Amino acid sequence: MPVDAIYLTEQLSKVQIVNEVNKDFVIEALRSIAELITYGDQHDPNFFEFFMEKQVMADFVRILKISKTLTISVQLLQTMSIMIQNLKNEHAIYYIFSNEHINYLITYTFDFRNEELLSYYISFLRAISGKLNKNTISLLVKTQNDEVISFPMYAEAIRFAFHEESMIRTAVRALTLNVYHVGDEGVNRFVTSRPHAEYFSNLVTFFAKQCLSLDKLVSDVSKRPSPEATSAILGAVDEIEDNLYYCSDVISAGIPDVGRLITGNMLKLLIFPLLLPSLVTEAVSETQIGAVTSLYLLCCILRIVKIKDLANTIAAALFCARETFVTIFGAKLNGYLSNHGTSKEYQPPDYDGSSTRPDFSPIHLGRDAVLRDNYIGSCMALREVLLSYVTTGDEVQVLGSLSVLATLLQTKELDESMLDALGILPQRKQHKKLLLQALVGEGSGEEQLFSPENSITRDGLNSEARQLNGGACLFAEALEALRH
């Protein structure tokens, strides 16, 4: 064993207090020991065995406790981050994570008013998360009756999930993804139980605030165009899309309860109270964002967040009038005012306190729309609003509406029945649907399929084909569609 390793551990164990006099030695000792541990992990197991015998992790914790200077905390976190990132041997990782030393460092009361310290702390947590698997994660959680009751790394990290510094937010998101992708059922139940499940509602609320900020930028640039304003909009768009891609990555972890939490919170905190009502440009006392911004955001959500229930519910909601959502979420919508002169902090809508929350399923939405016909009166459904933008709107509204319809058409998660109801089911798929109805003996399908008045037949067949037997030609075309 090298003399340096023996000397460093002996001298470090003799330190009783860390102050300005000896802090330089302690900092150098921490750095050197971490380098030797990393070297031993990759080249000489004897090094690592030696440091295990000397209980070096316990010494690290002790040094933190007796330290009186901020630089020691910073150096220790930096040292631990580098060491954990570079460990390859699972035996070494087990040692570092065992005996609650890591959890002590995680829950230690650091002074996070120091930005450098906070940055190293988050890097430390992220480094730990990079070594998680179904075996190592068990060393960082506490269980009771086979249920996870404490997971300090995750709980401490999500405290900073919405920090003003984007680098910190990014690191926390990377950490959460590492946790979700481990696939530990106990941990999955932990992150989707209260109060930790609030992270997902806070995520959507944070996203909603970004949407409001984007809309204000769009409004401002329309009044005072400038390169700086355009650049600010592009930056806001990047952040919004990054948020949605993060949600998509979370969903890809395959945790059913997480998918339901994201879907439910997006609907009740963002889409129903904020985006869909804003599609209507009729004069109202309070609208939260402009119609064009809402169209863009709906496109982004449908394009990036691949959740079947979310896509189908948005499509079903287009058959409802704006008043449907105002009725569900209250007569007045909280949040940003349309004149941009009196902005409020966005507040997610509250329920009336009843034990039963609104059902956001496509079927329920459709039923609610029918039940409310008595007082919705002549109000247009949102689908009709989109179509009115296409026919009578300005260039931006036309582009936005067509983009939403095109995105719906390209959304694989959307049921064909929804596309058909919206009137945007492609001709090839309409042929396929009518053919299947005819084959199973449904009269209406057979009549439509072979009817000479069928618009699909009129549009889809060329003049030469029309001279042939109409039914036979259409049948052949439908068979070809089935092959694709």
Automatic annotation (TrEMBL):
Protein name (Swiss-Prot/TrEMBL): CLEC16A/TT9, N-terminal
Superkingdom of source: Eukaryota
Domain named FPL: residues: 30-180
GO term, biological process aspect, one: vacuolar transport
GO cellular component: Golgi apparatus; late endosome
Species: Dillenia turbinata
SUPFAM superfamilies reported in the protein's UniProt record: ARM repeat
